[in-house]
Amino acid sequence: MTLPVADKYNIEFGDVTRAKFDWLKSKEYAGWVVFVDTNTRRDCLPLIEKFLDHPRLLIIECAPGELNKNLGTCQELWSQMFDGGVGRRWCAICLGGGVLEDMSGFVASTFKRGIDFLQIPTTLLAQVDSSVGGKLGVDFYELKNSLGVFNDPIAVWIDHRFLRTLPAREIRSGFAEVIKHALIADAGQWGRIQKIIDLTVVDWSELIPASVNIKREVVLEDPFERGVRKSLNFGHTIGHAIESYFLETEQRLFHGEAIAAGMIMEAWISYQLATLTVSDYQLIESYFLKLYGHQVILESSFDQLFALMANDKKNDDHRINFTLLAEPGRALINQFAGRPVIESAIRHYN
Ligand code: ADP
Ligand code: ZN
Predict the structure, then answer these.
(1) Ligand 1 centroid vs 166 CA: distance in angstroms?
(2) Which residue blocks in the chain are alpha helix, DSSP H?
(3) Which of 37, 104, 120, 284 has a beta carbon 3.0–4.6 Å from 267's, enabling a disulfide?
């Protein structure tokens, strides 16, 4: 199955096969540089290794994790590219989760003013979210994704077999974005998703393309986040604050776990300030609690969370804007919520 992104590139679903690499070969790149991290080298590279038969092949590995998504690592990657003889006519193959994809795509996009790159995302989060939409970059000054560019890959290949080695907690974290896509844009999908309780028996072959398609349509309509793309921020205003809060306390909280809590709270605000009904709010809350349980125990103080929200780079003039739900499947962007209702949402959940 193929989803075209305008007339720019294709997102291809299904097994990564020799035929796909034959297409890459037909582009006659001078060489291929493959970016992996320690884990994707061990678990994901073996699935495609046999197809990597370019005579000029360079494999570059970096340490995994958000803590390494910075300019220091980029510098190491750029150095290895220069030392390995990578030139303008090479293609980068980025094999990894969102961290590796964002960073290596950025490294490729800036190397000698930019070389082509292909994305093969290997986490659920990267497959349904970060690999669609052209945002690339790294963290700087402890701010997530504060340096980067918008740039398109030559293709995205999404193969759910990579998820077999992904830890269960990573799957559950990525699944929060799948739920989000349904809640903001597809009521039918939200209905189907609520039947999913056991993430070890999901048929990804339909769910992932459906989820990617929602994001693709939003991004096509508004590539630079001036309007409708903001609907993807549902759950993220409070979710990002929770994520940052836990980063400071050195307790590990995955992105999806933080935004799952954020979505419950922002659904509550949607019930208070918009037209979300109490029964829809309750369905949303109980589904998230069933799936994420008490993973997210919030012992955070409201004042700290509020300060983090007020500092978020997405808020102009320190006004805290939300993407809310009018109903499941329909988002409302640029909704202002005052301090009392935000406080009630956080306390209600705690
Ligand atoms: P994300 O933002 O998508 O969660 P990361 O790149 O941080 O991205 O990936 C999460 C973790 O999972 C990293 O430690 C990474 O090395 C590891 N990882 C990525 N893909 C796989 C996979 N298919 N199997 C096993 N581990 C993986
Ligand atoms: Zn997110």
Answers:
(1) 7
(2) 18-26, 38-43, 45-48, 71-83, 98-110, 124-125, 168-185, 187-193, 204-221, 236-248, 255-273, 278-292, 302-311, 339-349
(3) 284
State pTM to two decimals: 0.94
Q: Which of 181, 262, 266 is nearest to 218 (CA)?
A: 181
Query: Among the atoms of ligand 1, which is closest to the Cα of residue 165?
Result: 24
Q: Which of 273, 342, 334 is nearest to 306 (CA)?
A: 342
Q: Is 88 a catalytic residue?
A: no
Q: Can you read off the two tokens belonging to residue 46?
A: 């073996």
Neighbours of 75 (CB within 10 A): 11
State the pLDDT at residue 191: 97
pLDDT digits (tens, 9 = 90+) for 13-28: 999 999 999 999 999 9
* Confidence bin at 117 (pLDDT 50/70/90): very high
Number of neighbouring beta carbons within 10 Å of residue 335: 20
Return the ∠ at Cα 135 (arms to 185 and 329), rounded to 5°.
5
Nearest Cα to Cα of residue 258 among 347, 193, 173: 173
Note if 266 is an active site residue.
Answer: no
> Looking at this protein, which amino acid is placed at residue 267?
A
- Distance of CA 20 to CAs 11, 157, 254, Å? 12, 9, 32
Kindly give the distance from the C-alpha atom of residue 15 to the centroid of ligand 2, in angstroms, as a whole number. 25
Contact 193, 210 (CB under 8 A): no
DSSP string, 305-345: HHHHHHH-TT-GGG--EEEEEEETTEEEEEEE--HHHHHHH
**Residue 152 corresponds to which tokens in the numbers above?**
């398109």
Gap between the Cα atoms of 144 and 1, Å rounded: 33
User: Tokens 């030559």 correspond to what residue?
Assistant: 154
Ligand 1 atom with least separation from CA of 97: 6
From 233, 243, 266, 321, the catalytic residue: 233
Residue with tokens 């799957």, as numbered in its chain: 171
Query: Token digits for 90?
Result: 């090479």
Average pLDDT, the chain: 92
Q: Is 181 a catalytic residue?
A: no
262 contacts 235 by C-beta, under 8 angstroms: yes
